[in-house]
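Many introductory courses stop at the sequence. We go one step further.
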Amino acid sequence: VQLVESGGGLVQPGGSLRLSCTASGFTFSAYDMSWYRQAPGKERELVAGISSAGGHTNYADSVKGRFTISRDNAKNTVYLQMNSLKPEDTAVYYCNTWYYGRAYWGQGTQVTVSS
């Protein structure tokens, strides 16, 4: 199982970014996927999740209405569209899935929201 995130960067408050996570090594379309984030000095927290077929999503209260998770099973990719970004969204963002009872993580992509 390999998860590779991309799309992070520096953005001003109010701006937007789209993160991507490309998966390999397993049947992507059969597994739920999630995005987590970890800010300096804080625990890793769930940001958003999406079911295997994409029909069900869930979000942390802090990002509801601003972030959208989606997936393209033909491309083995899950996305996180982040709008109206705030300085408190600054964190390393990780892609995640559970495969045979074990959690798998990507290497993370840094998102910094600052003027």
